[in-house]
Structures are given as C-alpha cells and as structure tokens.
Amino acid sequence: MLRDGKIDRVELVACIATLLASWIFLPLISFFVRESYSAAWMGVLIGSLVVWPLTLLFMNLVRRFPGKGLVEVTLELAGPFFGRLMVLVFAFIFLDQAASSGRVFTEGIASVIMPRTPLSVHLAVFAAAGALAAYAGIEPIGRLSWLLFPFFLISLAILLVFNFNHIVSGSLFPLFGYGLKGIATSSVEMAGRFVAILALPILYPLLRKQATAMKDGFLGLIMSVIVGVLVTVEFVMVFPPGEAQRRLFPLFELALLVQLGTFFTHIEVVFVFFWFFASAIQLSWGLYIANYCFCRAFDLPGFRPVVPIMVVLFYALAFLPGNVIEAITLRVKTLLPFSFGFMAFALVLLWALYPFRRPKPAVESGVIRK
C-alpha cells in the first residue's frame, strides 16, 4: 500500500547500491585492464571512493535548506536560467547512464543468450520494464529495489564461488600494472560512473529518515564498491590481463564458465534472469531521477506525463552510437570524465554562491524560525 511518496532507509540503501553497482554489466573492466593492466581493481576502488567526500559536501549544503534537495538548492543559488541548465545536466547524466547500461546489457543478451532476436526488441522490452516502474513512482521502485537486490547479490556470490577453480594465480601482478598514470586514468573514469551517488542529495526531500541519509548512502556505496572490486579481481584472475582486454562482457563471460556436473550446463540463463531485473531497476531509477529533475526544474505539477518523453530520449541515446564498441568508448573516454568534472564544478559553484544567496531565517513576532 502506498503511503506518502517517500522511501525508507533500506530502500535508499538498495537504490544507491543498485545505481552504483550496475556498471559491472558494462565492459568497463576490459577498458580498465587496457589502461592499468593487472591494477584495474585499484582504479575501481579509488574512483568509487573519491566521490564520497564530494557527496558529503553536497549533503552539507543541501541540509542548510530545510525541505529542499539538490535540484531546489541549485535553482535557488544559481538562479532560474543557469540553475535550470545545471539541473538539466544532472538529468542528462542519469539518463545517459541508464541508456549506456541498457544498450550494453541488451547487447550482451543478444550476443550470448538470444542472438536471433533483434537488438531493438531486446531494448524495447527493457525500456518498457523500466518505464512501468518509473511511472508507478518512487515507493514502488524503492520496494522493488529492496526486494530484488538481495537476489542480485546472491547470484553474484554464487557466480564468484563457482569460478574459483578457474582462477590463475599471479594474474594480479605486477601490483601497480602499467603504473600510476593508468590507475589515475581509470580512477577518473570510474568516478564519472559513481556520479550517480548524486541521487542521495537529489532525492533528499523524499526520504522518510533524513537524519540517517548519509549513513545509508555510505552503506550503499560500500556495498557497491565491494561488489565492483570482487568482480574485477576475479575477472582478471580468471582471464589474465592480456586476455581480459579482449572480452567485452565480464559477467556473461564468467557465467559461461559455470557448470554443475556433466549434464547441467548453460547455467548463465539463471543468472541473466536476476541480472535483467537488477538492470531494469537501475534503468527505472535513472528514468525517475531524470524525470524528477526535469519536472522540478520547470515546476511541472505532475511527473507521469513526462515519463514517455524520457523513454524516447533513453531509446535515442541508447542507439546513438553505431555499435557497442562505439557506445562504450564514447562514454568511457568522454561522458564519464565530463560527469565527474561537472560534479566537481557544480559543487564549487554552489558553495561559492552560498554566502551571497543563503536562505534567511523567517522572523515572526520577534521569534526567529529556523
């Protein structure tokens, strides 16, 4: 039963963890291996953690404006014109991350599971599932996230355990791979993917337990970091760095190796079933947050009529690159660094404007109301 259009603590943790952990469906690990070789996991670890101090600064700013989130604070500090431009960039970042995940995930399904089905059909089903959840609102998405996220974790744990016998010792050496330059490059790209943690300050007005928001967000971040590092480490140890660079779909590649005895093969179908729902939930969060940003920027009374527009934009962004290589290269080399750079730029700008446009306490009958 729907209550007040807000989400609880466990749903917030599942939201942050799902948004941040969904990158493992992408070929990012292969790109990180090309840049930092056996030290790809270091780029994942550093890049995912470097966004947390920035998030704390965003949250510190947002909490100075009672009842408002990052979107409303941006509009108030940066003004109606530049504020809307910045909010639209926030919306684009979430929509683009959903589109990149959707395109690459459906490419993996089309390549490994159902090669005869057109890619457009795969993506249409995927978009429809995410759009239905986004249309239902934040409470249903939050509950679905919390319901399905444990199964996503269990499927990953089973996958990692059943690939222990394929591990090649020594694949993680040399420890620093190609050197610090490669680690720094992959860290910036990883940080661009983890910009999705901005969902925490954006959705701040929609949280029932705002006092514990930072603790819950940090828990979701840590869970996603653990998932990302473990998957990266095992992928590099199962497929040594020289081979890992040529494999586009890390999770699918690991799932294809799983066998139970002589007769039980193609177990990857079971994993894909859970991964589809996890990725669809990530898409629904991306659509909802992009939709929320757009509607709040232009003060629209309802968000549901805008959902179909966001789905069309999602579909267009997903098919903008000609193939999966162009899609992931464009996002890794251009859009992810841009996302992280814009996050840092927005943080500096908003804090610079705060002393001049800070909210004034209301005065009524000689009593200051905070």
Layout: helices, strands, pairs:
Layout: H1 9-21, H2 28-36, H3 40-49, H4 51-62, H5 70-78, H6 80-112, H7 119-136, H8 138-162, H9 180-193, H10 199-202, H11 213-238, H12 241-244, H13 250-256, H14 268-297, H15 307-318, H16 324-357, E1 362-364, E2 367-369
Helix pairs in contact: 1-8, 1-11, 2-3, 2-9, 3-9, 3-11, 4-16, 5-6, 5-16, 6-7, 6-14, 6-15, 6-16, 7-14, 7-15, 8-14, 9-16, 14-15
CATH homologous superfamily? Amino acid/polyamine transporter I
Task: Summarize the amount of helix as a percent range.
Answer: over 70%
Please describe the biggest sheet, giving its number of strands, its sense, and whether it closes into a barrel.
2 strands, antiparallel
Secondary structure tally, helices? 16
Number of domains: 1
Q: Strand percentage, roughly?
A: under 5%
Assembly type: single chain
CATH fold-level assignment: Amino acid/polyamine transporter I
Q: What is the terminal separation in angstroms?
A: 34 Å
Mean pLDDT: 87
Shape descriptor reads globular
